[in-house]
Fold this sequence. Notes:
Blueprint: E1 15-21, E2 24-34, E3 40-49, E4 56-58, E5 64-66, H1 68-72, E6 78-82, E7 92-96, E8 98-104, E9 107-117, E10 123-132, E11 139-140, H2 152-157, E12 165-166
Parallel strand pairs: 5-10
Antiparallel strand pairs: 1-2, 2-3, 4-6, 6-7, 8-9, 9-10, 11-12
Amino acid sequence: xxxxxxxxxxxxxxxxxxxxxxxxxxxxxxxxxxxxxxxxxxxxxxxxxxxxxxxxxxxxxxxxxxxxxxxxxxxxxxxxxxxxxxxxxxxxxxxxxxxxxxxxxxxxxxxxxxxxxxxxxxxxxxxxxxxxxxxxxxxxxxxxxxxxxxxxxxxxxxxxxxxxxxxxxxx
Length: 171
């Protein structure tokens, strides 16, 4: 606000110190000026950086039902998560599910558990249920013998043989 030789005016660039991650933190901005008389003015601004949004599952695998044969070759899939952040605030990736449960020829169930914990300690979970249907019912391989009538004497030596059955599945 002075004139002539008494004017002290200008522009000074800030010194910026960033100390934040996706979990939050601060940015410290300091402006400092020293005049020709060796007098210093300083201003510091503290900018609080909030944590990035927590990640969420993006189209997580849905519950499903599969056949017994499909269960034999079933592989655990992945789930994608993201918080749609930018730069160092982006939290995203893929997680392979952890499988538990069993099945046999009568059916069963798998539970796939997907769990992710970010660097800030926030956890998201997703469970997927895979229901396994029973194997198809077995049928006789060849037609079984028809009803017959035999004598009492023939009954003494009657020896019916075995009959094969299968449901068509392979081991």
